[in-house]
Amino acid sequence: MDNLPNCPKCNSSYIYEDGNLLICPECAHEWAAGTENPSNVDEMVVKDVNGNILMDGDSVTIIKDLKVKGASGPIKMGTKVKNIRLVDGDHNIDCKIDGFGAMSLKSEFVKKI
Known about the structure:
- The N and C termini lie far apart (50 Å).
- It contains no helices and 11 strands.
- The mean pLDDT is 87.
- By secondary structure, it is mainly β.
């Protein structure tokens, strides 16, 4: 069996080859053989309205009233949201808001506390 490198994204040792690609089954990261350098890993950078970099677990504040489809009222400006999770996509923050439940927010409508 070949001596394959660990995954540059999650450091898993369960790597397999598929043609010219190396694939990690744990995080689904794919990369070309020979580019194992962690500096080549695409990292998602999410910034708040002021340009501060957000990380998983941060607390943020809503900067304007946000209308929510199907809800009786908007999420008010100044609402604090704890323990955010960053995700890929148009709405790049997943969180739970008291009184509303699970929500997806855009980072342009929050500021880091």
